[in-house]
Amino acid sequence: MTPAHTASGSGPVKIYDSGSVGIAVFFGSPIAGGFLLRRNFIALGDRRKGNKWLVLSLLLFAGLITFGLIAGDALPAVGSSVINTLVALMYTTLSKKHFETEVGERKALGQGLYSKWRGTLTGVATAVVLLGCFIGTVYILELNPYNAPEDDMIREKFREVARLEEAAERIMGAFESPNYRPVQDRYNMMEQYHGHWERMDALLEEIAVLAEVNDRRGTLEFVEMYREQISLKIKISENMKKFVSDNDYTAYEAALNANAAIDFIEERIVRFFDNLDDSTRDVVYLFP
After folding, report:
1. What is the tens place of the pLDDT at every residue in 114-169?
2. d(Cα 280, Cα 270) in Å, to the nearest integer?
């Protein structure tokens, strides 16, 4: 490779030593390393090889991101640091392999090398750009969340749950009205009330299965609380049927206790919606 010279002809175009490349990779990912390797190859007259290493660096970066997403929580923070260090060492070795002789000659002459500070700044600048891209992507996804096929099914099931709950509350309202109704009619009303809540529980179980597919944590947490509430509604209907058919006041007291417990769960649900974090925000656009 023939070194390129500056426009003034005062000396060769500067290149980065292996330490600068390694530092850039440590702070700025393989992309920063690929950029510096490319600059070195161009300075030495081999643009084609420089472009090749930049493309390979981009592919390596994409592979590492994919690996991290697949590994998830199974990859501890220390594991990420070790991988980052190994990649930086790999790029240091690559730089030595291709440029050690040229770097040694320039060091002997005391010219033609960029300082390690410049390599560090390149790495930091790359990291800032990548962070900006990440934040922008997250912001866009929050405004327009990924709509998986399962999400449409979840929404439809939530709408059915809402319709059933509205119908159940109408039944309870009629049951509690002062108008006289025969015992059998009141019992049948509680049977319908009971059936609506059981159907809702089955729908929520189906929603939980669908939410698990796409790791919709907010939906899963909400469904768990909602099912707790529904189990108490079912308990109320069972005890009210006993009260209506057998005039069992013990069953009536049990229904009252269950109703009091529902108030506590409703408070938890309100707090849940008031304190949504990034990992549970999906419930906002899935729950109608």
Report:
1. 888 988 899 899 999 998 988 887 777 665 556 678 888 999 999 999 999 999 99
2. 14
d(C-alpha 50, C-alpha 94), whole Å: 12
Cβ(235)–Cβ(254) below 8 Å: yes
Q: What is the helix, strand, coil percentage profile of the chain, to 5?
A: 80, 0, 15
> Can you tell me whether residue 137 is helix, strand or coil?
helix
Instruction: Report d(CA 101, CA 99) in Å as an integer.
Output: 6
**Burial of residue 95 (number of CB atoms within 10 Å: 0-12, 13-18, 19+):** buried
In degrees and rounded to multiples of 5, residue 12 shows phi and psi of: -70, 155
Question: How big is the chain, counted in residues?
Answer: 288
Of 215, 17, 185, nearest in space to 117 by CA? 17
Q: Counting beta carbons within 10 angstroms of the beta carbon of residue 214, is it exposed (0 to 12), middle (13 to 18) or buried (19 or more)? A: middle
Cα 282 to Cα 217: distance, rounded to the nearest angstrom: 7
Instruction: Return the structure tokens found at 219.
Output: 């939906």
